[in-house]
Amino acid sequence: MTFIFIVRRIFSSVASVFMLLTIAFILFRMLPGDPASLMFRDPRLTQDQVVFLREKFGLDKPLWEQYVIYLVNTLRGDLGISFYYRRPVAEVLLERLLNTLLLLVPAVLISIAIGVLTGVVSAWKRGSRLEKALSGTALALYTLPTYWLGGLLVLASINYLHLPVTGMGDYGVGYSSFMDHIKDLLSHMVLPLSTLVLVNYGGFTLLVRASMLDVLAEDYIRTYRAVGFGEGRILFKYGLKNAMLPTLTAISISIATSVSGAVLTETIFAWPGVGRLIYEAVFNRDYPLLQGAFLTVTVSVVLANLLADILYGLIDPRVRA
């Protein structure tokens, strides 16, 4: 049954990816003008390059042939040539993806850790001043606009903290050692990392709190308390395990969307990641790059959903029925 369940989920994910590829193809063709004319707008492209690109990506062929070529090229990892960078889209995305993961994976993990802990404590101390403070803070930060909080941290850094506010490092500065480079990188990560953690952890807190409240009201929790089990054991060994089931999907989606980067955060702090790359692609009308970023983000979300479904099914047998 478990094997059949996993196979079903894999086929469903493959179908979703195929639909996303089709949507991306249609959206790109719905833009003003034909794709080839968009390439002609770049004065840096020579006539020979334009002819080569037309033939390579089948832009001189009927639409159905273009679709087949597009699918084949995408499956081979060939996402086209960036209009702005004049380099393969996959190459540009890979460079920015590493920068994004360097920033956002720690941010997501820290947000999950803080959110789970504060959510459990809020549910345990329901009705107390501590619970109101934790839940109120989480709700306030969750509803804050990212650009507002990021701008506030920039002002605080300029006036008080004196931390770097843009980029991944001080350009043109030589480092005497590898550790100096690491220290400079970490100092540039503080503000964007703090912004992402503060904005994201509130959602995990509220979700875990709601799930824990439902679990703590169950009869088996009362039985454990009547038997004499300690609160810590009840909360983290029995309560949290069941409360985390609805949270798995939210966590997987958060990790997946880290691939897209936080467009606003990366733009505010000039962090050269996928989020800022999306902004640059829109600003420069670099449609192949924008299409490649769209595919990267959506496929990541599908894969994360697949992982969440499999984990959910392994933990909760009812899902496999």
UniProtKB/TrEMBL annotation:
The membrane topology noted for this protein in its Swiss-Prot or TrEMBL record is: Multi-pass membrane protein
* GO-annotated biological processes: transmembrane transport
Establish whether keyword Cell membrane is in the entry. Answer: yes
Q: What keywords appear on the UniProt entry? A: Cell membrane, Membrane, Transmembrane, Transmembrane helix, Transport
Q: Which Gene3D superfamilies match?
A: MetI-like (1.10.3720.10)
Keyword Cell membrane assigned to the entry: answer is yes
Q: What PROSITE patterns does this protein map onto?
A: ABC_TM1
Q: Which Pfam families match?
A: BPD_transp_1, BPD_transp_1_N
Its localization reads: Cell membrane
Concerning CDD domains, the annotation shows: TM_PBP2
- Which InterPro entries does this UniProt record tie to the protein? BPD_transp_1_N, MetI-like, MetI-like_sf
Where does the ABC transmembrane type-1 domain start and stop, copy by copy? Answer: 97-312
Spans through the membrane: 12-31, 101-124, 136-161, 185-208, 243-269, 289-315
GO CC, sorted alphabetically, is:
plasma membrane
The UniProt entry's sequence similarity note says:
Belongs to the binding-protein-dependent transport system permease family.
What is this protein's record name? Binding-protein-dependent transport systems inner membrane component
